[in-house]
């Protein structure tokens, strides 16, 4: 293999004296390196709780399979990232506030009409009272 040839090139003098032993040392070195790497990966997984994170990531990927729009990705420009996230929210909120404002204005208009009708009725009753009072005197 290519990696064995590089190993031999590094230890050429030793390889010329005992090629079998060089191959054995190489095989042992590679197997220990693989074990060491696997242990290191497992340690990183355990320290960072990567198993839980990977399972939650798998769940997110599974849930996103049916979505048609692409997932949000940061652009690297914080202002644009905030704008792309916040502007739709603020536009939706502004639309909601406008709708609530229209409803409150309509409600206030109806209350103002009923107040005016009540004042007119009070004025009519006051005139009626005065007319009856004058008629009685």
TrEMBL record:
Any single Pfam family the record assigns to this protein:
Nnf1
Major location category of this protein: nucleus
Biological process, per Gene Ontology: cell division; chromosome segregation
Q: Does the keyword Nucleus apply?
A: yes
Q: Which UniProt keywords apply?
A: Cell cycle, Cell division, Centromere, Chromosome, Kinetochore, Mitosis, Nucleus
Localization per record? Chromosome, Centromere, Kinetochore; Nucleus
Q: Identify the PANTHER family for this entry.
A: POLYAMINE-MODULATED FACTOR 1
Q: What is this protein called?
A: PMF1 factor
The species is Daphoenositta chrysoptera
What lineage does UniProt assign to this protein's organism?
A: Eukaryota, Metazoa, Chordata, Craniata, Vertebrata
